[in-house]
User: What shape does this take?
Amino acid sequence: MEMFRRTFAEINLDNLTHNIRVLQKAFPQRFLCPMVKANAYGHGDVKLALHLEKLGIENLGVCLIEEGLLLRKNGVKANILVFRGFDKEGAKAIINNDMTAVVSSWDQIEALEQVADDKVRVHVKFDTGMNRLGFRVEEAQKVFDRLNNHAKIEVKALCTHLYIGENANELDQTSAHQLQKLNKVSEIFKSMNVFCHALNSSGILNLMQMQQDGVKDSTHPLMLQNWGVRPGLMIYGYSSLGRPDVGDLKPVMTLKSVVNTYRQVKTGETVSYGAKWTAQRESVIAVVSIGYGDGYHRLLSNQTHVLFAGQRAPITGTVCMDYLMIDVTDIVAGKDLNSFKDKEVTLFGWDPEGHLLSADEIAKKAHSISYEMLTGVGERVPRVYVGKGI
Ligand SMILES: Cc1ncc(COP(=O)(O)O)c(C=O)c1O
Assistant: This one.
């Protein structure tokens, strides 16, 4: 790949491997479906899916049919679960490309009935409180009656999605109620021999914490069944619980750029659009080759720092479309500026010295979450893969 500007997202496949091994070790017998939707949370879905297959992953989750098709076209053989709804055309694409539909509504059942020649295997989603997708829990018996002994549709699994997975360790909170509801639904479907999947990263990390603490309470909602797990964020190395101590996860993506040029700025001069930063002293400002056109939030203007030469350097002024500026005065003081020519800058992730600047920390400054920092990295930022899988 030609790269004339050294701004790129380095994707460390060894760290991905590590995070997957953490899950495989914690849940050796469970349905495990890493989520690779939204371009694998910005990491590059085809590369990651192929790597995940090498690690023994058998199921992958996407939102869009288009995402699943891209994986299939690039040789991904794993079972692909499509979570977003579909019409007749979508049903055809799902069936013809051997993907698994997650059925959430009556018209989706009809669409499948209209286009299926042979039996198609589906997972059925229930809305246990998020009010986004899925059959209502009260409809469970009707759904069962419609699909039981169906000539064309075979139900393999039931699922739901936690909307405050952070509280899944508690006995009487939203997640507990959701899991109890799905458990009840699964009793209705018992004769179909289905399994259930329900846990996202927060649910999974809560369960891992309970396992670590030696909790063995089969009445606890998290332990009512061997809930299948659908980890997204955590496979990319971040804890949605905000608990880096649980799970020993390693961030996979490092967003890197390079210093384009240095400016000597006099006291009282301003930097960048809108003059939102004024030098309080003679300053050395580094112009870094990344901006909001690359998905680096403009809300971070004047708000956070980057890693430069092993140290934190604050962003000065407004983030531009193609550049942002940082104050490196103290870091370069007394040194030859030429020795910092083309210096690498870490926006988040690991710097060459092994310091971690967490996407979580940066996200907070932009009133956002690590999910958005990762998925927001723009298309014009090349993904460069490193690690043993390469
Ligand atoms: C249906 C479904 N399952 C699992 C996940 C994974 O969630 P997380 O990234 O919090 O693990 C998502 C992501 O939003 C999702 O939509």
The mean pLDDT is 96.
